[in-house]
Amino acid sequence: MHIGRRLFISGGIALAALTAMPRALLAGAWPEKAFSSTAANQAMIDLLGTDKTTPSDKVTMKAPEIAENGAVVPLKIKTSLENVESISIFVEKNPRPLAATVEILPGTLPEFSSRIKMRETSDVVVVVKTDSGLYSTSKEIKVTIGGCGG
Amino acid sequence: MASTIKVKAEVSGDVVEVKSLMLHPMETGTRKDADTGEVVAAHYITQLTFTHNGKLVMVANFSTAVSRDPYFSYKFKGGKVGDTLKVTWVDNTGETDEFETTIE
């Protein structure tokens, strides 16, 4: 009898530990559906629930006007908006437009830099998700040599 | 084996600036091998995470459109000199690597 009771107790403790685990210890799942989407607006819908965003000058993207090599396009993204939950990059003319999506956790500043690939000249859209909605900025980046291989 | 991760974390005021570089091919799955003409299978980092003293501070989800040998930098508050920062990546084939550094 006491073995069953012990199992029950340890199971209960494990469950309590799991449910008590704060969000800050668990990374969200990789959003496979949005990453697989072949159209930018559908990728936005899959990732964020809608493709309607509000253009905002509080979202900035520093990027070259012309990227000679589409395999390496440096981007610096920043926002002065409050309560940011995520920042996502969509390259409209890439075969799969969603390039990256970054979770902004409590204490982390809503800005990052990285380097992406672009197949051809395209609008690049940055969408910032805050607790009050979706805000965006967009910029055309010209590509001399495409960077998706082929 | 040498780490695939290079990371530097420096405090300025109450903000830690993190700069990281991962060695990874980031194959799109559409590129053809120049010699054999065969398509090279997709092989790319899907998720990059950073934990500061055990607390998750950054989760970046990538597609094949992040450049080869991904560079990623960002900032977070609340870190101090001597704290640990752990970097972990996982890719679409299930490979993973991690590296722990100390904030300077």
Description:
The complex is a heterodimer of chains A (about 150) and B (about 100). Chain A is about 20% helix and about 40% strand. Chain A has about 150 residues and is α+β, with helices and mostly antiparallel strands. Chain A has one domain (about 30-145): Sandwich (Immunoglobulin-like). In chain A, strand 5 and strand 6 (about 100-105) form a beta hairpin. Chain B has a single domain (about 5-100), classed as Immunoglobulin-like (Sandwich). Chain B starts with a strand and ends with a strand. Chain B is elongated. Classes of the chains: A alpha+beta (about 150), B mainly beta (about 100). The interface of A and B includes residues 25 and 31 of A.
Average pLDDT, all residues of chain B: 96
Major sheet strand order of chain B? 4-3-6-7
Helicity of chain A, in percent? 10-25%
> Would you identify the regions of chain B where 5 or more consecutive residues have pLDDT less than 50?
none
**Beta-strand residue percentage of chain B:** over 45%
According to CATH, the fold-level topology of chain B is Immunoglobulin-like
Q: Which CATH architecture of chain A?
A: Sandwich
Strand residue content of chain A: 35-45%
Examine the secondary-structure arrangement and name the CATH architecture of chain B: Sandwich
Biggest interface reads: A-B, 37 and 32 residues
For this structure, what is the CATH homologous superfamily of chain B?
A: Immunoglobulins
Give the helices and strands, then pairings:
The complex is a heterodimer of chains A (150) and B (104).
Chain A: H1 2-20, H2 32-36, H3 40-48, E1 54-55, E2 59-62, E3 66-69, E4 73-79, E5 84-91, E6 98-104, E7 108-116, E8 122-130, E9 133-145
Parallel strand pairs in A: 1-9, 3-9
Antiparallel strand pairs in A: 2-4, 4-7, 5-6, 5-8, 8-9
Chain B: E1 5-12, E2 15-22, E3 45-52, E4 55-62, E5 71-77, E6 84-91, E7 96-102
Antiparallel strand pairs in B: 1-2, 2-5, 3-4, 3-6, 6-7
